[in-house]
């Protein structure tokens, strides 16, 4: 397990020098601007695969909050993206370090659920609810498994929970 | 990932069904007799089929995040943990190896697992538990028991690092210890995972390929056998 973690770490740390890839063409308004979107993902890094669950609270005006867990519910990452573009890592783990969350999880979140796909969205749309992001050193195969429209709680989008918005 | 190991171990050990401890429970001064009785009941078990609902309660979200599935255990040391909704995934373990399958685009795909050693360790612990060797738990947990309308076994990790992930694990059983109703895994920040067992069938002779790590039998076929089992 230590070796796996090490190799995964090396892959994540060294993977930024990758050739540009085909950018994903995702139609606008694929997902509700306000709602809770549940995802199931398979992350492939260095030939090994890891399953992840994602719970995304999305607000058209307040931003996006994504919680990633492993199979049995343990939180691996919790990240908040505000409309001004700032990224706030609310929670990290041994598996997903703050720097990786800030750099890669946030980028994938923007790519898949941002207002527009943007220019940093290397991958393919495999189906209306199925996406593949390929950054060369990792692949994320992501399916949307449940969508619940409706405005999320404003508290979710407060980067400093100790202070009321 | 250690939390995964602990959770799975305890699920298997205690054949959980899950909720908050019911009110009116009285702490037991000496939990050993109850744990011994539980161990005795577990040791006679050859196989079990369980249907569950898993509720992940994060303080962030107003509603719990739910998933459904089944857990199958058979001697010697075979386990199948299958999530059926909102996504489909199968985790299989034996004394020798582990495997995971994900369902996508109409077919099952076998994964090249990361952290296989960790999963193997889970399987080893599982085997111990399935043999009723609860003493393996006391080295890792402080165990207390409360009784009343139900029996609640509360387990607090002794290891500080584990406790930073898992504050306590509560197993709620019927008062006669015949089956577990619910398991709650409490985290330090107040989040929790609750696994509620809706249906249990013991002593089932599972069909071949139920635990096959190359091409596991479809769950519908297993359910048909379970439905017709005595």
Alpha-beta content class of chain A: alpha+beta
The helix tally of chain A amounts to 2
Kindly report the greatest chain-chain contact and the residue count on each side: A-B, 39 and 32 residues
**Number of structural units classed as domains of chain B:** 1
Order of strands, main sheet of chain A, comes to 5-4-3-2-1-8-7-6
Radius of gyration of chain A: 15 Å
Mean pLDDT, all residues of chain B: 82
Fraction in helix of chain B: 25-40%
CATH topology of chain B: outer membrane lipoprotein receptor (LolB), chain A
**Number of β-strand runs of chain B:** 12
Figure out the total of helices of chain B.
6
**N to C succession of SSEs of chain B:** HEHEEEEEEHHEEHEEEH
Q: Which oligomeric state applies?
A: heterodimer
Architecture overview:
The complex is a heterodimer of chains A (about 160) and B (about 230). With about 160 residues, chain A is an alpha+beta fold. Chain A has one domain. Chain A is built from two helices and eight strands; from the N terminus they run αβββββαβββ. Chain A has helices spanning about 1-15, 100-115; strands at about 35-45, 50-60, 65-70, 75-80, 85-90, 125, 130-135, 140-150. In chain A, strands 5-4-3-2-1-8-7-6 form an eight-stranded antiparallel β-sheet. The model of chain A is unreliable at about 1-5 and about 10-20 (pLDDT under 50). Chain B has about 230 residues and is an alpha+beta fold. Chain B has one domain (about 1-225): outer membrane lipoprotein receptor (LolB), chain A (Clam). Chain B contains six helices and twelve strands. In chain B, β4 and β5 (about 90-95) form a beta hairpin. Chain B is globular and about 50 Å long. Mean pLDDT of chain B is about 80; it is low at about 1-20. The interface of A and B includes residues 8, 36, 75 and 155 of A.
């Amino acid at each position: 397990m230590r070796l796996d973690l090490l190799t995964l770490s090396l892959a994540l740390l060294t993977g930024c020098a990758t050739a540009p890839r085909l950018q994903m063409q995702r139609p606008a308004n694929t997902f509700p601007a306000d709602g809770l979107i549940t995802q199931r993902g398979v992350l492939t890094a260095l030939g090994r695969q890891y399953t992840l669950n994602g719970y995304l609270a999305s607000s058209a005006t307040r931003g996006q909050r994504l919680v990633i867990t492993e199979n049995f519910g343990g939180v691996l990452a919790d990240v908040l993206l505000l409309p001004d573009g700032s990224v706030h890592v609310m929670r990290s783990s041994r598996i997903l370090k703050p720097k990786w969350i800030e750099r890669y999880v946030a980028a994938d979140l923007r790519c898949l659920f941002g207002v527009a796909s943007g220019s940093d969205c290397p991958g393919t749309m495999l189906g209306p609810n199925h996406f593949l992001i390929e950054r060369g050193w990792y692949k994320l195969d992501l399916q949307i498994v449940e969508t619940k429209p409706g405005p999320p709680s404003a508290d979710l989008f407060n980067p400093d929970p100790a202070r009321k918005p | 990932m250690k939390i995964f190991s602990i959770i799975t171990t305890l699920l298997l050990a205690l054949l959980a069904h899950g909720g908050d401890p019911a009110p009116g429970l009285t702490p037991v001064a000496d939990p050993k007799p109850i744990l011994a009785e539980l161990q005795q009941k577990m040791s006679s078990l050859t196989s079990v089929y369980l249907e569950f609902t898993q509720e992940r309660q994060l303080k962030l979200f107003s509603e719990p995040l739910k998933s459904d599935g089944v857990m199958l255990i058979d001697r010697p040391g075979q386990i199948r943990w299958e999530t059926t909704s909102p996504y489909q995934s199968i985790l299989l373990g034996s004394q020798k190896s582990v495997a995971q399958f994900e369902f996508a685009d109409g077919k099952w795909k076998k994964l090249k697992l990361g952290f296989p050693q960790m999963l193997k360790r889970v399987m080893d612990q599982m085997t111990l538990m399935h043999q009723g060797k609860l003493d393996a738990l006391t080295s890792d947990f402080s165990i207390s028991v409360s009784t009343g309308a139900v029996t609640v076994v509360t387990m607090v990790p002794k290891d500080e690092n584990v406790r930073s992930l898992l504050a306590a694990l509560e197993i709620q059983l019927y008062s006669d210890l015949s089956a577990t109703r619910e398991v709650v895994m409490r985290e330090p920040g107040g989040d929790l995972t609750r696994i509620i067992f809706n249906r249990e069938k013991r002593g089932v002779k599972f069909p071949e390929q139920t635990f096959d790590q190359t091409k596991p039998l479809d769950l519908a076929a297993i359910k048909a056998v379970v439905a017709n089992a005595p």
